[in-house]
Amino acid sequence: MNTLTCGFIGLGLIGGSIAKALRLRMPDTKLLAYDINAASLELAREEKVIDKICPVIDESFGDCDYIFLCAPVSHNAGNLNALKPYLAPDKILTDVGSVKTGIHRQIEKLQLQKQFIGGHPMAGSERFGYQNAKASLLENAYYILTPSEEVSSEKVEAYRTLVETIGAIPLTLSYEEHDYVTAAISHLPHVIAASLVNLVKSSDSKEGVMKMIAAGGFKDITRIASSSPEMWQQICLTNADNIAKLLRTYMQYLGGIADDIDAHKEDSLYRFFDTARNYRESFISAPSGPIKAEYVFTVDIADKPGAIAAIASLLAMHDVSIKNIGINHNRELAEGALRIEFYSEDNFSRAVKIMTEHGYKIHTH
């Protein structure tokens, strides 16, 4: 079997994470990349993630079995025009954008449908750039494929296999369905998160009391507001119809809830929260659900030097790995002064047992 060759046009968070996953799981793969950020390319070569730096889009990409378009979507048209002369018909061209309609229309305009399979890894971070890329970003994440109508089933199956090999879960949709679905479950939440942050910013006192005590639920649901402004500006512009339609529906929904609150409609308000709770819990309990169970507890600790270190040392002595640990300043939604998160249910259960036996009061949720 010939060595696989993959090329990347753009090597940021997603492109870099795919490249790292390929290097980890298919170490013999030859990887080459072009990016306007020379420092990212040099770092990727120093880390032995890529084998070759391409200063321009040239014939080097003609040898690639897969070419990943990973630059910002606003650059796709120019990059495709530069790439087209070097594309052999037996190769697979794909992208990683979270909006698919625009790229599919460009592909149709350039008559590249027979080799194009749109791709969207449903993974990311509030941080961006190659320096934040990691192979594990794609593990057990849905990776949506939107094949052109003219691409062969053999190419689609080959790409599905590649996606599975790097640890992701392939899911095939039409590009129209993809854009509507992601507008609801990905794009709209970012708009809402940013709106909530801006609401608090404009409503806060001069002393910044809201900012000071914002924690718990507020920080959880607005975390994604720290994502790249440029990226989300482009997503809103390229998936405008779907996002605006769903946003207006959401605003009508909020208006109805505001009316129920004004009218003190007890039954309606209860149904509102109960329905949401039950539906969200079904995400967690479903084997392939998008929201996985969290293994977290909070614990009461004394306010004295070494208290946190003592807990970390105790768990380390028993080979219990901690995923995250931090002070819980706002305990509106959770008891306990220290929040500890674990990677697995086994680590979580052993930690509860160990700490309870050593006299700590644990609060699980």
What can be said about this structure in brief?
The chain is an alpha/beta fold and about 375 residues long. It contains 13 helices and twelve strands. About 45% of the residues lie in helices and about 15% in strands.
As a percent range, the share of helical residues equals 40-55%
The total of helices stands at 13
- The ordered string of helix (H) and strand (E) elements is EHEHEEHEHEEHEHHHHHHEHEEHE
Spatial strand sequence of the major β-sheet: 3-2-1-4-5-6-7-8
Q: Flag low-confidence runs.
A: 286-290, 330-335
Major sheet = 8 strands, mixed
> What gross morphology would you assign?
globular
Number of strands: 12
If you had to describe this structure to a student in words, what would you say it looks like?
With 365 residues, this protein is α/β, with parallel strands linked by helices. The protein is built from 13 helices and 12 strands. The strands form 2 sheets. The chain has an 8-stranded mixed sheet, sandwiched between helices. Helix 3 links the parallel strand 4 and strand 5 (92-95). Helix 6 (175-203) crosses helix 10 (240-262). The N and C termini lie far apart (51 Å). Mean pLDDT is 88; it is low at 286-290 and 330-335.
What is the strand and helix layout of this fold?
Blueprint: E1 5-9, H1 13-25, E2 30-34, H2 38-46, E3 52-53, E4 66-69, H3 76-83, E5 92-95, H4 101-109, E6 116-121, E7 142-147, H5 153-165, E8 169-172, H6 175-203, H7 209-213, H8 216-222, H9 229-238, H10 240-262, H11 266-285, E9 295-299, H12 307-317, E10 322-327, E11 338-342, H13 345-357, E12 362-364
Parallel strand pairs: 1-2, 1-4, 2-3, 4-5, 5-6, 7-8
Antiparallel strand pairs: 6-7, 9-11, 9-12, 10-11
Helix pairs in contact: 6-10
